[in-house]
């Protein structure tokens, strides 16, 4: 079981990261909420991790906050929710916002998250309503260095990330067109696109 990673950030192509730990490169998938806070390439990063073993693969997921990992693990217990959808949820809303949507039964807000239809939203509310208490609370993030890496092609990286989170090509094109401005990093474009999509 790998519960924490500390190493040098070698690459970030949302939602994937590559972190070097004593010469071993760990491929880690992370939500945008974590990617927004990453240090520059070449700097040290510390992530709380979730290690998943599937029939055909082993995967590692990274988070800055324990509350995010807790929500991720809770979402995986909901029937019909996989890791990809759980990452999309964490990329689109904060833990506190998600807890509020579930507590208030806000189906329309949940269905604006890619990969979540009405039936899945209803299932999330039914299965998690009594379990979201305590997920939020502003748990502090692990220490990390500030700073952002300059993307080689921010629009391409943002487009790829949005596709990974479940948006269809036409939706990606529309969101990117509305969000991208000259000089934006991939993270900035993705942040604005997700905000626009969830309005």
TrEMBL record:
GO biological process: DNA recombination; DNA repair
GO cellular component: cytoplasm; Holliday junction helicase complex; Holliday junction resolvase complex
Main location per the UniProt record: cytoplasm
Region (Domain III): 156-199
InterPro entries: DNA_helicase_Holl-junc_RuvA_I, Hlx-hairpin-Hlx_DNA-bd_motif, NA-bd_OB-fold, RuvA, RuvA_2-like, RuvA_C, RuvA_C_sf
Keyword NADP: no
Domain Helix-hairpin-helix DNA-binding motif class span(s) in chain numbering: 73-92, 108-127
CDD domains: UBA_RuvA_C (cd14332)
Superkingdom: Bacteria
Domain remarks: Has three domains with a flexible linker between the domains II and III and assumes an 'L' shape. Domain III is highly mobile and contacts RuvB.
Family (UniProt): Belongs to the RuvA family.
Role: The RuvA-RuvB-RuvC complex processes Holliday junction (HJ) DNA during genetic recombination and DNA repair, while the RuvA-RuvB complex plays an important role in the rescue of blocked DNA replication forks via replication fork reversal (RFR). RuvA specifically binds to HJ cruciform DNA, conferring on it an open structure. The RuvB hexamer acts as an ATP-dependent pump, pulling dsDNA into and through the RuvAB complex. HJ branch migration allows RuvC to scan DNA until it finds its consensus sequence, where it cleaves and resolves the cruciform DNA.
Name the record gives this protein: Holliday junction branch migration complex subunit RuvA
Species of origin: Ahniella affigens
């Amino acid at each position: 079981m790998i519960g924490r990673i500390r190493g040098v950030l070698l690459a970030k192509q949302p939602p994937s990261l590559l972190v070097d730990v004593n010469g071993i490169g760990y491929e880690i998938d992370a939500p945008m909420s974590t990617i927004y806070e990453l240090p520059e390439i070449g700097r040290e990063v510390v992530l709380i991790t979730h290690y998943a073993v599937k029939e055909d693969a082993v995967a590692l997921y990274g988070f800055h906050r324990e509350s995010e990992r807790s929500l991720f693990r809770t979402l995986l217990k909901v029937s019909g929710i996989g890791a990809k959808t759980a990452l999309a949820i964490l990329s689109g809303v904060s833990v506190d916002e998600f807890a509020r949507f579930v507590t208030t039964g806000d189906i329309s807000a949940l269905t604006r998250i890619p990969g979540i239809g009405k039936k899945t939203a209803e299932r999330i509310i039914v299965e998690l309503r009594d379990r979201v208490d305590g997920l939020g609370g502003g748990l502090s993030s692990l220490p990390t260095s500030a700073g952002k890496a300059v993307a080689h092609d921010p629009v391409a990286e943002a487009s790829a990330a949005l596709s990974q989170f479940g948006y269809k090509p036409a939706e990606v094109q529309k969101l990117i067109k509305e969000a991208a401005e000259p000089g934006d990093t991939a993270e900035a474009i993705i942040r604005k696109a997700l905000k626009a999509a969830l309005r």
